[in-house]
Amino acid sequence: MIFHQLYEPESSTYTYVFGCPDTRQAVLLDPVIEMVDRDLAALQELDLSLAYTLDTHIHADHITSACRLRSLTGSKIAYPEMDALPCADVGVSEVAPLEVGSLRFDALFTPGHTETHHSYMVELPGISRAFTGDALLIDGCGRTDFQGGDAATLYRSIHDKLFTLPGDTLVYPAHDYQHRHVSSVAQERERNPRLGAGRTMEEFIEIMANLNLPYPKRLDVAVPANRLCGDCPDEDVLLAREPEGPSFQG
């Protein structure tokens, strides 16, 4: 498998490039609309043809480039099936993985940050990788105070779905605000200050209730746009960048 991690600095978003070495088809996970040129250049450099974009959830801090890339490349749009987005070409669920050449993305329903959030497992011989979106971050987690978020639900998602994975499973989040690139399930179980080291659900709920985070600056633009797979705002709105920083994840 061809694999690259790309970083968008304004929203601290990681976009992941996956390529099948046999078919030269690619999948972009959580792409950002302002980075279309960068992503297309990366695909060209790797001699890959974009087959699908895939998102973990309807983001509130950036706008997906799914529709833009579909119009430019003919790629298809994959989203969690339960989002029921008319703009999506393919719905992904725990019983309906996304397969592209030798690539396989097994969905894990991990609500709590949003009510339809999904993580994705990608297996290689001897290597398991979990792409945890905004649910589980490195030494943190996504906030739970909008888009159907719920702290108790997120706690169960992480403890029942993600923390039960083998400890050496690599954890790749959708964001990091300290330029860290990867963690592991064992590391997050042991030292995540919100969810690890034996934190109870009651302790986690109290932590999340007392974050006092500011209202996300782009939520009113990003969420409606992402419900249309990114095909919504005017260009002037799309390019009006306001950094979210750690306030988005708490």
From TrEMBL:
**Keyword Flavoprotein attributed:** no
Give the Gene3D superfamilies listed for this entry: Ribonuclease Z/Hydroxyacylglutathione hydrolase-like
Q: Which InterPro entries match?
A: Metallo-B-lactamas (IPR001279), Mito_Persulfide_Diox (IPR051682), POD-like_MBL-fold (IPR044528), RibonucZ/Hydroxyglut_hydro (IPR036866)
Q: Where do the Metallo-beta-lactamase domain residues begin and end?
A: 12-175
Pfam families per UniProt: Lactamase_B (PF00753)
The UniProt entry, under SUPFAM superfamilies, shows: Metallo-hydrolase/oxidoreductase
For this UniProt entry, the molecular function terms from Gene Ontology, in alphabetical order, are: hydrolase activity; metal ion binding; sulfur dioxygenase activity
Which terms under GO biological process does the entry name?
Answer: glutathione metabolic process; hydrogen sulfide metabolic process
Top-rank taxon? Bacteria
UniProt entry keywords in alphabetical sequence: Hydrolase, Metal-binding
Q: Which PANTHER family match?
A: PERSULFIDE DIOXYGENASE ETHE1 (PTHR43084), PERSULFIDE DIOXYGENASE ETHE1, MITOCHONDRIAL (PTHR43084:SF1)
Protein name in the entry: MBL fold metallo-hydrolase
- Organism encoding this protein: Sphingomonas xanthus
